[in-house]
Amino acid sequence: MKKLISLFFVLSLFLVSSVTADMMPAGHKSVRYTFEIENIADYPDHVFILYGEIGTREILEPGQEVHFYKYSSPYIYAIKKTDFDLKNFEQLKEGDYKVMENYFETNPDLIKSDLQLTNYGMVSEFDPLDKAKDVLKIKLLDENNLLIVKDKVIYTYEDGTSEEKVYGQQGITSSLDHGGFPVPSRTTIFPPWTMSALFLSGFLLSLSALILIIVLVVRRIRR
Question: What's the domain range around 6?
Answer without folding.
Answer: 1-29+191-223
